[in-house]
Amino acid sequence: MRSGGSTLLFGALALLLLRGSSVSAQESSATARDTVQATALRAYLDCQEMGCDRDFLVTEMKWVNWMRERLDAEIHVLVTSAATGSGGRQYTVVAIGQKQYAGAADTLAYTSSSNDAEDTRRRGLLRVISQLLLPYAAKTPMGSRLSVSFAAPSTGGDAPSTTAHDRWNYWTYSISANGYGSGEKRQSFENIWSSVSANRTTDTWKIRLSGNFSYNQSLFSFSDGTTYSTLQRSFGLSSIVVRSLDAHWSLGGKAQADRSDYYNTNANIVAGPAIEWDFYPYQEYTRRRLTVLYSVAMQHYAYRETTIYDKDRETRPLHFLAIGLSKRQPWGSANVSLTGSQFLNALKYYNASVNGGVDVRLGKGFSVNLYGNLSRVRDQLYLPRGEATDEDVIARQQALSTNYRYYVMAGLRYQFGSMFNSVVNQRFGAFGGGGGSTMIMSF
């Protein structure tokens, strides 16, 4: 028995020694791989756009060291995007050099269609970002491990014509309908909304036609047995036509008609021409813009209830001015806009507002953001005569008399620790461990 125990002990020790040797070999191999990886290009991915799957990009581009903080990177990859006329998105990707590459900047664009699957969009971004970073990565010791592939065009059939034929003539259409319901013993909610649109976008023309409808109803039961219900309905039609004159100027007009329980209108119709000027060329719109827009229009009201000014309907001329500045740069983003409208036959009725925000990276791991809006309201011609009930005020059944509106939001963020941000681990996503999951658990 003692002999058998000794044999078992020696066997266990031998197994541990062998396992230790294996682990040491694995650690040595990992150290070698880490040494090579440490020489890889260091990049910072700044992509907050729709369709940007950071986990996918980081996982697929293992030949890059992705940094948590932009100041530690050699290349800052800045991605911006704008919607296309067909419902897709055009992504502009800029590789901005830092440290030894300071002053370098390369740009590529990728356009997705409205029918592209999510995987198609993210692989398109992967291709463009890889093309931008490859020349820099090739200069590192990791370059000897990189290769370039080429997808040759199909040679079968006739060669495609140089001019593509679009049987829709750049028009795109969209129809949607949605419903939502929820409830419990003493309250229930029903919401229905739908929309339809027709759009045509070219370098010269931009046309937007749209319609929308919404129906919202809520029911509440109180402890004394009484009930209270709310109903909000709205309907609207809108059209915009714009012609680009050059890289800075555009001319067009807008017409819209809507109905709203909240704003006490059976009809609110506005139509008039507008002109816009952009200080920067339009091609730079996703990264910076400074625009001035001016419009003159006629506005007609048909009210649901007689207003506080004893009006059931009225028509007034008005003008509108909007000035907007927006920038998206490596240090963060900032935007501010000034808007104002005024009735030309009664200058005391006007609305003016300032809206803006900043999101700034102040240093390594430290950022601050501030957003807010302040409006001076002097144009509530639509207010119904009589006082709203307390229930209507709480349930926001109608617009209330006011001479100002505002909102403000502020935040600070500080992150510290490892400078590397290249590892993706999706495990236990349902517990908040990162990543998404369809599993739902409750305890």
3D architecture notes:
- Among the domains are: 102 residues, Immunoglobulin-like (Sandwich), CATH 2.60.40; 187 residues, Porin (Beta Barrel), CATH 2.40.160.
- The chain has 443 residues and is of the alpha+beta class.
- The strands form two sheets. It has a twelve-stranded antiparallel sheet, with no helix packed on it. A five-stranded mixed sheet has the order 2-1-3-4-5, covered by helices on one side.
- Strand 10 and strand 11 form a beta hairpin.
- The longest helix has 37 residues.
- It is globular and about 80 Å long.
- It starts with a helix and ends in a 29-residue tail after the last strand.
- The chain contains four helices and 17 strands.
Which characteristics define this entry?
443 residues, Immunoglobulin-like, Porin, twelve-stranded antiparallel sheet, five-stranded mixed sheet, 4 helices, 16% helix, 47% strand, disordered C terminus
Question: What is the gist of this entry?
Answer:
With 443 residues, the chain is of the alpha+beta class. Helix content is 16%, strand content 47%. It is built from 4 helices and 17 strands.
Helix-strand category:
alpha+beta
Mean pLDDT equals: 84
- Uncertain residue ranges: 23-33, 157-162, 436-443
- Strand order, sheet with most strands: 6-7-8-9-10-11-12-13-14-15-16-17
CATH structural class of the domain at 245-431 = Mainly Beta
* First-to-last CA distance: 50 Å
Helix content: 10-25%
Gross morphology = globular
Tally of contiguous helical segments: 4
* Strand residue content: over 45%
Q: Architecture of the domain at 245-431 in CATH?
A: Beta Barrel
The arrangement of helices and strands along the chain is HEHEEEEHEEEEEEEEEEEHE
The number of E-state strands comes to: 17
Major pleated sheet: 12 strands, antiparallel
According to CATH, what is the topology of the domain at 245-431?
Answer: Porin
**Roughly how many Å is the radius of gyration?**
30 Å
